[in-house]
Amino acid sequence: MSLSRSFGIDPGLGRLGFGVVERKGGVLKALDFGCIETPPRIDIPRRLRMLYERLEERIFLHSPDFFCVERLFFGKNITTAEYVWQARGVVLLLAARNDIPVFEPQPSQIKSVVCGYGNAGKSQVQKMVQRLLALDVVPTPDDAADALAAALTGLLLQKTASLFASEGGVP
After folding, report:
1. Contact between residue 107 and residue 88 where contact means Cβ atoms under 8 Å apart
2. How far is it, in rounded angstroms, from Cα 16 to Cα 34?
3. Would you call 139 exposed, middle or buried from its count of C-beta atoms within 10 A (0-12, 13-18, 19+)?
4. 129-141 pLDDT, tens per residue?
5. Interior/surface letters 76-107, b for 16+ CB within 10 angstroms, e for the rest
6. Distance (Å, rounded) from C-alpha 157 to C-alpha 33?
7. How far apart are CA 12 and CA 81, in angstroms?
8. Secondary structure tally for the chain: helices H, strands E
9. Is residue 6 within 8 Å of residue 151, measured between CB atoms?
10. pLDDT single digits (tens) 53-81
């Protein structure tokens, strides 16, 4: 029976969502999910270090096979985007330092995988994540649900990559 463990990330500086999903055969299970929050009164470098250290603890706890980190697109608020990109950089550095492969789908790809529609709303994503992972309640906050959705997407991307590798590459 094949076993894969995906670590999904919804990057953010003030609140970073994380979700760990395991696929054992055809069964999906949420092992851990939530948010890491950093206080705005602390300087940016220390907040980034907090993210790094708390994520590293989760890596050691769950030993993921890969990360799935949402690729970001922002247009309006450059300051907010800068902080999110910095938090995303911390995640990518952590993955690289621990030799963990990373998938980087766009938000619309994650929504397509989980909901079947690339423009699905937050509540649709939360409800589908609940259904796919057989959770008793809708995962909250939405950052945690988005991270679980990313983890689910990572499992599909990993399975697809494995299929292509076993057949000699992408056609």
Report:
1. no
2. 8
3. buried
4. 999 999 999 999 9
5. eeeeeeebbebbbebbbebbeeeebebbbbeb
6. 20
7. 9
8. 5, 5
9. yes
10. 999 999 999 999 999 998 886 666 666 78
Contact 38, 50 (CB under 8 A): yes
Of 33, 26, 107, 106, nearest to 64 by C-alpha is: 33
Q: pTM for this one?
A: 0.91
Q: Which residues are catalytic?
A: 10, 70, 143
CA distance 114 to 118: 9
Amino acid residing at 168: G
Parallel/antiparallel/unpaired status of strands 102-103 and 66-69? parallel
Token pair, residue 64, equals: 């993921």
Tokens 């992972």 -> residue: 133
Cα 4 to the center of its chain, rounded Å = 14
The bridge status of strand 3-10 relative to strand 15-24 is antiparallel
> In 7-138, where does DSSP find H-type helix?
44-62, 78-97, 107-115, 122-132
Q: Which residues of the chain have pLDDT under 50?
A: 170-171
